[in-house]
Amino acid sequence: MNTQAYAVVTGASRGLGKALAIELARRRINTILISSSEKVIDFCQSLADDYPIDAHYFITDLTNRDAIIATAQKINERFNVFMLINNSGVGGSKRFEEVETAYLEKIIHLNIIGTTLLTKLLINNLLKQKESYILNVASMAALTPTAYKTIYPASKSFVYSFSLGLHEEYKKRGMHVSVVCPGAMATSPEICARIEKQGFFGKLTLVPIEKIARKCIRGLLHQRREIIVTPFSWLFSKIIPNCIKVPILSKIVRKETAG
What is the span of the domain harbouring residue 24? Predict the structure, then answer.
């Protein structure tokens, strides 16, 4: 086994996952990148070229149970893992009666089962280290049920609750678990178009992914249970009761589904 310590990042080929991997590399933290896209190959090489770190990658479909098990086994056999960042996730805005069952299953398998299973399979490796960290990426949607998203907020609510429970269970054993609930992130043309349809409110919660990544890694290393990157959105979600905020946010999201 490689005696160096590594951070595992899922969904690492684009968006927040890519920004998190770059932030880790800036801090000279060795990385293991997991993605379903072959783009991770060139990105992994660029990290190794640009920063004084050791970088590896695995092309893995995190909606596939057997693929997750196989990748976790390879990681445990070859690497000491002191950090796990569960960033992979998927969502969208559609009318519930119009979505395919495959769409619902993908969200559940990636956001819930993938996050849980990978954490379970790597946890003994993490616990072997003198100090270790887990960061789970939830969403502001985790704090507010929303029409036209339905299954996505529910899946991120699971990630949020799962993270807080892990934090409490392992905080005295040298493993620090954090959860972050980012707001809108312009990570792809499709998401940018959705944010544009949300109007002023969508743009108000928009934060550059590089800034989110910096706050995430800093908060994780400072052992924050909950990392807040968009204070306005967080306060809105925490203070305003569901009977008020759910209709407001649902009306905003409904604009995304308009043809």
Answer: 5-257
CA geometry: angle at 72 spanning 68 and 75, to 5°? 145
The whole-angstrom separation of Cα 155 and Cα 107 is 7
Which helix (H) or strand (E) segment holds residue 86: the answer is: strand 80-86
The helix (H) or strand (E) run that includes residue 133 is strand 132-137
CATH of the domain at 45: 3.40.50.720
Residue range 4-30, pLDDT digits in tens: 999 999 999 999 999 999 999 999 999
DSSP state at residue 28: T
Q: Which is more confident, 216 or 94?
A: 216
Provide the phi-psi class of 223: left if phi over 0, else alpha when psi is between -120 and 50, else beta: left
Cα Rg of the chain, angstroms: 18
SS3 percent helix, strand, coil of the chain, rounded to 5, is 55, 15, 30
Counted domains in the chain: 1
Cα dihedral 37, 228, 105, 88, rounded to 10, equals 20
CA angle (95, 99, 100) in 5-degree steps: 170
Nearest to 206, CA basis, from 178, 235, 233, 239: 233
Coil vs helix vs strand at 84: strand
